[in-house]
Design brief:
Layout (H helix, E strand, L loop, with lengths): L4 H6 L7 E4 L3 E5 L7 E7 L14 H18 L6 E4 L15 E5 L9
Antiparallel strand pairs: 1-2, 2-3, 3-5, 4-5
Length: 114
């Protein structure tokens, strides 16, 4: 998707504070963080949302969670806690239509959010 900012970051054609990348996913800092740690984990292939996931994407979805755990450890928030958020669609707050997992932590979170 040439107009997708997340695809451009994955391909290195747009700037982003990338903190992790492998053959499956790329993770970078959110430009509008809501907490000291706010990292987005995105699949390297363009998938619009959770609604677009297919059975063959199950390993990818699991890998996104594993990378979130790894990054939480690197950020030093694995012991105190962190939040993982997947927004699906405009009513849920999805703004960029490329599947992404928010890793948020580094401060106490209120519940519910929003």
């Amino acid at each position: 998707m040439e107009n997708c900012i997340f695809c451009q970051i994955v391909q290195g054609n747009a700037s982003g504070a990338v903190v992790y990348q492998d053959e499956t996913v790329t993770a970078f800092r959110d430009i509008n963080p809501v907490a000291p740690t706010h990292i987005l984990i995105v699949p390297n292939k363009h998938i619009v949302s959770v609604n677009e996931l297919q059975v063959e994407d199950e390993p990818l979805a699991g890998h996104m969670l594993t990378v979130a755990r790894l990054l939480a450890e690197r950020e030093g928030i694995n012991e105190t806690g962190y939040r993982l958020i997947l927004n699906n669609g405009p009513h849920a707050g999805q703004v960029i239509f490329h599947l992404h997992l928010h890793l948020i932590g580094g401060q106490p979170m209120r519940y519910p959010m929003g």
